[in-house]
Predict the structure.
Amino acid sequence: MLDKLSSTLRKVTDRVANAVFLDKNLVDSLVRDLQRALIEADVNVGLVMEISKKLREEAMSERLKGVEKKEHVIKLLHDELIRILGKSRELVLGKKETWMMVGLYGAGKTTTIGKLAAYYSKRGRKVCAVGLDVHRPAAPEQLKQVCKKVGVECFISPKEKDPLKIWKSYEKEIKKYNLVLVDTAGRDALDDELVEEIKKISKVVKASESFLVMAADIGQAAKKQAQTFKDSANISGVIITRMDSTAKAGGALTACYESDVGVVFIGTGEKPSDLESFDPEAFLSRLLGMGDLKSLMEKIHSVMDKKEIERQQKKLQEGKFTLRDLQTQLGSMEGLGSMDKIMGMIPGLGKVKDKIGEGKIEEQQAKVQKWKHAINSMTEEEIENPVVLEKQTSRIQRIAHGSGCSTSEIRMLIKQWKMLSEMMKEQGKMMEGKMDQKTMMKMARKFGKKMRF
């Protein structure tokens, strides 16, 4: 997301850090690059000029010299970008929560409810959804399908045209759940009728949060929409969808800052796991190629439940790792999204992925798919004890034939398993405190050299 802006921000910070000294020509060049990237990301021109002015003044100031000045300029850029991205807001859930989704047609309210349901049900919440969109004929069925996909209960009444009657008919069942997600109707534009409907529903359902759902591709128009919904419908936060598919995302994010409405979640794809709580610091860290482990951990929790995570951790401590475990991890990775997206979240790999290139990343992703098919073509003995494959070439040939892979690809899978298995054993020792710092450094160098794309 925002690839061009991300690339420019990295180049600007690298050029400042590597400069012998900051002269006027260099500063002007950096500011022009930054302006172009921010404006292309649809950030308000007034905000862009404000940041540019501050950077020029600080970079040419005589108060600071050398390294101190370079660090100061980089920090100033970082702080200004954080400021226009807005403040983060941590959602603390009580014993009983009712969240209402509001917004215009096509913003992604129903899909977002499915993502929120997946996000919180994986974290131990008992979640249900209630369909109160009585205007769009397909809305109840869409909500039902979305909820079925993530395994949560859904309450709908397709024939009823009064949203308040639908709510009251399910009130007893709804009380069994501690997070209730309410889908409401949209309109082509915010009018008096929609505002009145939102207010009535909010009062009856006793909404603890009202989130405006809007698409990132509306860019700076988000400011007016967020402000109008805030004034008329008393929204408590914004969820921005389609962050992965538009250059206007910068405009939508900064527009929410300008209208003083906090962004709480961002949608980054089509899958149920493609939802992230919005943290400006972590988001900027990813744009700068410094990773975002917090969002990565959120994604892992969204595709693996608590029991599976605990089982994997136990395996890690025991130092046991079979091809079945590798298959589970490959499946979880698929749920996390593209390899390109995952690499952007891991500190240090954000910049590496630019050098590797999309072709190599896609090649690696295709290789992972082949490995999954290969494991499915193995016997239980081969999965649990892959060492037997090295001793019998006929087994490798059989698996290759059954999975549509070459024998060299099967051998590469075994090689990767051996490396990961060895890493697991070493990490098990590390977790038990049986490894000193010198050995840990040696291990990092050893496995670092083995990792190849």
Remarks:
- The two ends are 23 Å apart (CA to CA).
- The domain at 304-450 is CATH 1.10.260.30 (434 Repressor (Amino-terminal Domain)).
